[in-house]
C-alpha cells in the first residue's frame, strides 16, 4: 500500500491569496507567524515532506509573489514549489493553479494554505481513498447540536447531527475530474472544491479528519493554533 501511494503522481494546490480580514491583522493571513514561522511555511513544509506529492502550486496575491518566495519558500528551504497569481475568490485561485498542473499528474490534492496542522496520515489516507474512488475529502463529524433557523430567527427544526460532517482539506480528485469541475464553475458559488465536483453528480467519499486540522480564520483560531504548537501538535 505504501509503495503504491509513493508511486502516485500527485500535484498539491494551495490557495493562499486570502487577506484574512476576519482575523483583524495588519499582516496578511499566510504570513502571520506562529512560533516564529509563517502559517504558510508550516503548511508547505508538511506537504513537501510527502513522497507522493511531486509538485506544489501555491496561489498567492499577485503583489505578494516576491514576498512568498523570499520569506517563505526560500527562507525555509521548501522544495517542489511553484507560485501562480491568486484570484478574487478561493475558487479563482484554484482555477489559476490548475492551469499550471504538470501533464503527467494523475491526482490533484487541494489544501488550504491556512490549515498548518495537516500531517502525513491525513495526506496518505485521502490519497488512498481518492485512488479507489476518484474523489475524497477530509472531514470530521459535527459535535454541536444544529438548528435550522428562519429569517425571523425562530427555530424551524433540529436535524440529527449524525448526518452532518464539517468539511476540511485536503480534498483529492482525479486530475481530469477536478479540471472538468472547475471548467464548469462559471456562475456557481463554491466554498470548497467538493461542491463543484458534487454539482457534476459525483459523490466524493469522506475520509476521517482531525479536530486539530483547523483553518485559521479568526483571532480565536490563531490563539488555538499557538496553543497547539506549544503542546507539540507540529
Topology:
Layout: H1 2-6, E1 10-15, E2 33-34, E3 37-38, H2 39-48, E4 53-60, H3 65-74, E5 81-85, H4 90-98, E6 107-110, H5 120-133, E7 135-141, E8 148-149, E9 155-157, E10 165-174, H6 175-183, H7 193-198, E11 205-208, H8 219-230
Parallel strand pairs: 1-4, 1-6, 4-5, 7-11
Antiparallel strand pairs: 2-3, 6-10, 7-10, 8-9
Distance between the termini: 25 Å
User: Can you count the beta strands?
Assistant: 11
Portion in beta strands: 15-25%
What is the annotated CATH architecture?
A: Alpha-Beta Complex
Question: What structural category characterises the helix and strand content?
Answer: alpha/beta
CATH topology assignment: Spore Coat Polysaccharide Biosynthesis Protein SpsA, Chain A
User: Given the C-alpha coordinates, what overall shape results?
Assistant: globular
Number of domains: 1
Secondary-structure element order, N to C: HEEEHEHEHEHEEEEHHEH
Oligomer: single chain
Average pLDDT metric: 93
Number of helices: 8
CATH superfamily: Spore Coat Polysaccharide Biosynthesis Protein SpsA, Chain A
Radius of gyration, Cα only, in angstroms? 18 Å
| Strand order in the largest sheet | 5-4-1-6-10-7-11
CATH class: Alpha Beta
Which segments are poorly predicted (pLDDT under 50) over 5 or more consecutive residues? none
Describe the structure.
The model has no long low-confidence stretch (mean pLDDT 93). The chain is of the alpha/beta class and 234 residues long. Strands 5-4-1-6-10-7-11 form a seven-stranded mixed beta sheet, with helices on both faces. It is globular. The longest helix has 14 residues. It starts with a helix and ends with a helix. It has a single domain, classed as Spore Coat Polysaccharide Biosynthesis Protein SpsA, Chain A.
